């Protein structure tokens, strides 16, 4: 099921509309302990209304051809694509802005890890003077320009609470709260596109003694800069791209930085990943992996003596099979080699400010940063699609490929060219 299938699907959307199957009515200082209060923080704009408040809300029904849930890059790209076919759609977003993850939950020094040619949204290239590796604020401006270019009007502060498929009527019934207007809207949609992403709720692991840790414990979504941590002992939990870059940022600002690396990881430079992304159109993934690993060996040497081991499968095969990305080094490895960033194994328990690691080693810390990823909330309102519903329920995510959008069904994905 490649892009040809989804081309046909979009034409099905258009033809169904033309046959009138459905009609459209148109941080400063980080002193808070957000790890311990993660459940409160994640309420944000989707905070549930009380039963009494719901009863006061106006209840309306609206028929739509396509309902897009989520106004991040994937949802906006989907809106742009369906608009090219003149297919009417509605896009809803639970936050009060588009691309909220980029605007509100990223650290200051963040840049796109992939070169710009792999990060364009469909139908709109970057300006010619855009740098190869795009800073966060430049990408946000690009998103704003994209919204203006395609006249996309997300309905913000609208939280989807449930969705069911009516097999008799052949439509999706999606209940959503428009909290800005105090409305409960029952959308009846021919097609449902889920573009709400997997980064909805902060994932904080359960660690014995964490609840009694007296220092600052935050999720990486709360982290902005290491400037407030100079001279303090900080532990970063998580060795993905965010964890490794936050560790580098902390050390660069004078923090006594440690990082937990529990699992094998691939470490690459951004230039090696760019090369691999280019070669993927011409060579098998295993061949690309062999080339990249040989070059990574020349750049980084043997990292096992520093507590960093590699997975058995190569970086591109691993990404293809599991979704796990290679770590793109921003300077962290050099600081680890110089012992300016210390590497630890798994935590066994926390006793006050003292953290005990596997093997009995202990160290004292003033702060913990959890770079442990996110959980999706989609399963709380979207039930697993049955086979007859698959043609009308799509999962969309921004694709790191020129002018492309990934639209997946279940665990499978296909590419929709721009």
How would you describe what is shown here?
This protein is of the alpha/beta class. The chain has helices at residues 3-18, 38-41, 51-56, 73-84, 100-104, 136-149, 241-252, 270-279, 285-300, 315-322, 332-337, and strands at residues 58-69, 89-92, 158-166, 171-178, 183-194, 201-202, 216-219, 233-237, 256-260, 267-268, 327-328, 341-344, 347-351, 354-357, 362-364, 367-370, 374-375, 393-398, 404-409, 412-417. Strands 1, 2, 3, 4, 5, 18, 19 and 20 form an eight-stranded mixed sheet that branches.
Task: List the keywords.
418 residues; 5-stranded parallel sheet; 8-stranded mixed sheet; disordered C terminus; globular; disordered N terminus; single chain; alpha/beta
Outline of the structure:
By secondary structure, the chain is α/β, with parallel strands linked by helices. It contains eleven helices and 20 strands.
The main pleated sheet reads as: 8 strands, mixed
Q: What spatial form do the alpha-carbon principal axes imply?
A: globular
Give the percentage of residues in beta strands: 25-35%
The Cα radius of gyration reads 23 Å
**Tally of individual helices:** 11
Separation, N- and C-terminal Cα atoms: 17 Å
Structural class: alpha/beta
How many strands appear in the DSSP assignment?
A: 20
Q: Which regions contain 5 or more consecutive residues with pLDDT less than 50?
A: 1-6, 18-33, 35-48, 399-418
Question: Helix content range of the residues, please?
Answer: 25-40%
- Averaged pLDDT, please? 84
């Amino acid at each position: 099921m490649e892009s040809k299938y989804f081309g046909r699907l979009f034409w099905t959307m258009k033809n169904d509309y033309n046959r009138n199957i459905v009609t459209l009515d148109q941080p400063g200082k980080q002193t808070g302990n957000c790890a311990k209060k993660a459940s409160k923080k994640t309420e944000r704009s989707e905070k549930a209304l009380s039963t009494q408040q719901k009863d006061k809300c106006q209840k309306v029904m609206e028929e739509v051809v396509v309902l897009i849930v989520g106004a991040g890059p994937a949802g906006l790209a989907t809106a742009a694509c369906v608009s090219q076919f003149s297919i009417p759609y509605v896009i809803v977003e639970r936050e009060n802005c588009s691309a909220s993850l980029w605007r509100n939950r990223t650290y200051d020094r963040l840049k796109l890890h992939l070169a710009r040619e792999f990060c364009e949204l469909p139908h709109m290239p970057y300006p010619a003077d855009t740098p190869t590796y795009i800073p966060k604020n430049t990408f946000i401006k690009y998103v704003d320009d994209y919204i203006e270019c395609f006249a996309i009007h997300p309905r913000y502060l609208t939280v989807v609470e449930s969705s069911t498929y009516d097999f008799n009527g052949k439509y999706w019934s999606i209940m959503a709260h428009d909290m800005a207007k105090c409305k409960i809207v029952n959308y009846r949609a021919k097609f449902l596109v889920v573009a709400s992403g997997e980064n909805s709720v902060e994932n904080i692991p359960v660690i014995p003694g964490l609840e009694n840790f007296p220092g600052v414990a935050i999720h990486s979504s709360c982290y902005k800069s290491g400037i407030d941590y100079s001279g303090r002992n900080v532990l970063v939990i998580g060795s993905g791209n965010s964890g490794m870059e936050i560790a580098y940022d902390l050390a660069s600002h004078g923090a006594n930085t440690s990082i937990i690396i529990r699992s094998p990881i691939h470490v690459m430079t951004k230039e090696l990943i760019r090369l691999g992304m280019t070669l993927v159109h011409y060579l098998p993934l295993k061949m690309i992996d062999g080339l990249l690993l040989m070059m990574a060996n020349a750049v980084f040497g043997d990292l096992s003596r520093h507590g960093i081991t590699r997975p058995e499968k190569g970086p591109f095969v691993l990404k293809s099979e599991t979704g796990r990305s290679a770590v793109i080094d921003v300077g962290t490895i050099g600081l680890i080699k110089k012992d300016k960033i210390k590497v630890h194994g798994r935590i066994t328990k926390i006793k006050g400010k003292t953290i005990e690691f596997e093997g009995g080693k202990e160290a004292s810390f003033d702060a913990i940063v959890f770079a442990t990823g996110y959980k999706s909330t989609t399963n709380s309102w979207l039930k697993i699609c049955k086979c007859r519903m698959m043609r009308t329920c799509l999962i969309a995510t921004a694709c790191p490929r020129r002018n492309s959008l990934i639209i997946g069904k279940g665990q499978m994905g296909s590419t929709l060219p721009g």
